[in-house]
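Section 5.1 Outputs to date
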Amino acid sequence: MREIKFRAWDADSKPPRMIEGNHIQHLSIVYIERASMPLMQYTGLKDKNGVEVYEGDIFKSENHNPLNFQVEFVEGAWCATSPYVKDYPTEMYHFSLESIEVISNIHENPELLEVESDD
């Protein structure tokens, strides 16, 4: 059975921060929604370093360099999406967990998903 956990991005705190663990349990869902804190759910997966993989995380894969992927919930499955592969989300089970490494998340480093221009 998968452990159900969440974290939230608090962009209004100074400095902005991720709220996790026991801290998020003390916040009500109403407060989180009113404060526009995006909730991110734990996928039940861990990367090659034992880091928990959450919705909104950005990871790199040794098998797919130099692409970075974002974890999203798409049509009932945890998927990896990339701006380089726009029309085809890849379900997470296609990745070897020993080959992926969480490097950030979309709130702290969205530039990691930017497409480099050829200009």
